[in-house]
Specification:
Elements: H1 23-58, H2 61-79, H3 84-99, H4 106-120
């Protein structure tokens, strides 16, 4: 008779909860769950951020050089003159993209610096 739970003298099933979790236990569970979710999001975000870098590095040197030159020339035409506020955001994104290339040397970085500095403001 002890299997169906009708015995009043039978021991409690060890897999059932006698009482709900305390407030502190709920907070700990929520914090752990939130931490796991944030960690997963950080890993996914990091992976996606590296996507452009992986694509650039996967190109042949000739392709990468051609894309670098084309992007840099476009940047010169649009952004180094009086780009105005309408193009500022696009120029900042182009500057960030150009920085991903290994071909962007110190002179290149100095050229991009004024546009990137405006991105902080």
């Amino acid at each position: 008779m002890g299997l169906n739970g009708n015995d009043e003298g039978a021991e409690d099933n060890i897999f059932t909860r006698d009482r709900p979790p305390t407030r502190n236990q709920k907070r700990v569970r929520q914090a752990v769950t939130l931490g796991v979710v944030l960690a997963v999001l950080a890993v996914v975000w990091g992976y996606l951020q590296g996507g452009e870098n992986r694509a650039i590095n996967a190109m042949s040197p000739a392709q990468r050089e051609a894309l670098f030159q084309e992007t840099r020339d476009s940047f010169h035409l649009m952004c180094l003159g009086d780009a105005g506020p309408r193009l500022l955001q696009r120029c900042q994104k182009q500057a960030e993209f150009i920085l991903r290339f290994s071909e962007c040397d110190e002179a290149c970085r100095q050229e991009l610096e004024p546009v990137l500095r405006n991105a902080v403001r």
